Automatic annotation (TrEMBL):
NCBIfam families: MTHFS_bact. Belongs to the 5-formyltetrahydrofolate cyclo-ligase family. GO terms for biological process: folic acid-containing compound biosynthetic process; tetrahydrofolate interconversion. Substrate binds at residues 49, 54. Signal peptide: none annotated. It comes from Paragemmobacter aquarius. It is an enzyme of class 6 (ligase). It catalyses: (6S)-5-formyl-5,6,7,8-tetrahydrofolate + ATP = (6R)-5,10-methenyltetrahydrofolate + ADP + phosphate. One of its GO terms (molecular function) is ATP binding. Its cofactor is Mg(2+). The keyword Transit peptide does not apply. This is 5-formyltetrahydrofolate cyclo-ligase. ATP binds at residues 7-11, 125-133. InterPro entries: FTHF_cligase (IPR002698), FTHF_cligase-like_sf (IPR024185), NagB/RpiA_transferase-like (IPR037171).
Length: 182
């Protein structure tokens, strides 16, 4: 099996675990995330619009004191761009049916709330397979310190995420069970 096959198998088990955790609710996850992000007030933040069974960061995004953006996929194999978001802004369907602001300024985040399929104690994440966040984090980190916060259900933790040379580590992970700094 090659690394792509190993990652695909890991995704299957993580999607199932996430679906079960989603049914139980996210508990205090958004409040824990907002508390962590308070130390980053004033910095440009990227969140995301939760899809399907993803844990929802919207309350933490709304509480952030500073500009907030959401990811926009501009092209396959390219870093993400981030369009400014605010509570109640008009949204349209973007790539992969993710909601994005209909208009707004482009921002470059210093702190990113990163969705994921799975994660491990080392701080590696298993994404959806497009490499968008890995490319984006590599680009942003080449310019300046950039914080990546994985946001997930505790049930999405794997013993070890299969990684390759392109995978970017997280700086923290927030779940309904608490915060882990890495």
């Amino acid at each position: 099996m090659n690394i792509d096959d190993v990652k695909a198998e890991a995704r299957k088990s993580c999607f199932a675990a996430r679906a079960e955790a989603f049914k139980a609710g996210q508990g205090q996850a958004a409040e824990i995330l907002a508390d962590y992000l308070a130390a980053h007030r004033g910095k440009a933040l990227s969140g995301y619009m939760a899809m399907r069974t993803e844990v929802d960061p919207m309350a933490a995004m709304a509480a952030h004191q500073g500009p907030v953006g959401v990811p926009v996929i501009v092209a396959k194999c390219q870093p993400l761009r981030f369009r400014e978001w605010s509570v109640g802004c008009a949204l349209v369907e973007g790539a992969f049916k993710a909601l994005i602001p209909a208009e707004g300024a482009w921002i470059e985040p210093e702190v990113l709330i990163v969705p994921l399929v799975g994660f491990d104690a080392r701080g590696y994440r298993l994404g959806y397979g497009g490499g968008f966040y890995d490319r984006t984090l590599a680009m942003l980190r080449a310019k300046r310190p950039t914080v990546a916060v994985g946001f997930a259900f505790a049930a999405q933790e794997l013993p070890e995420v299969p990684i390759d040379a392109y995978d970017q580590k997280l700086d923290a992970i927030v779940t309904e069970q608490g915060l882990r700094l890495l």
